[in-house]
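Below is a filled-in request sheet from our internal design queue. Each sheet records the structural input a requester submitted and the sequence that came back. We keep these sheets so that new team members can see what a complete request looks like end to end.

REQUESTER: design group, bay 2
PRIORITY: normal
MODE: inverse folding
CHAIN LENGTH: 87
BACKBONE (tokenized):
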């Protein structure tokens, strides 16, 4: 996310799983978000407020996915994958 002419801002995002450091970078149209502690989380928002909200949701979703995958591997749960039909 390091492009010329863009400004990076580091903020803390409070989630239900703790506080995460987030890097927000403004480009021509959007606010791009990266989470160093969760490399799988990358998102964006049309405004700074929207980008922070999206970061919170993406972090929580990523953590919840990890928990489900670990529980499935241990045999504690069975995740049923259903094909999605697009209209």
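RETURNED SEQUENCE:
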């Amino acid at each position: 996310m390091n492009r010329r002419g863009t400004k990076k801002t580091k903020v803390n995002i409070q989630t239900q799983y703790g506080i995460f450091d987030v890097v927000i970078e403004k480009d021509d149209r959007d606010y791009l978000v990266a989470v160093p502690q969760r490399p799988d989380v990358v998102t964006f928002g049309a405004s700074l407020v929207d980008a922070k909200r999206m970061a919170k949701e993406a972090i929580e979703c990523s953590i919840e996915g990890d928990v489900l995958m670990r529980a499935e591997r241990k045999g504690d749960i069975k995740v049923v994958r259903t094909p999605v039909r697009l209209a």
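SHEET NOTES:
- The mean pLDDT is 92.
- Strands lie at 7-15, 18-26, 31-34, 42-45.
FILED BY: M.R.
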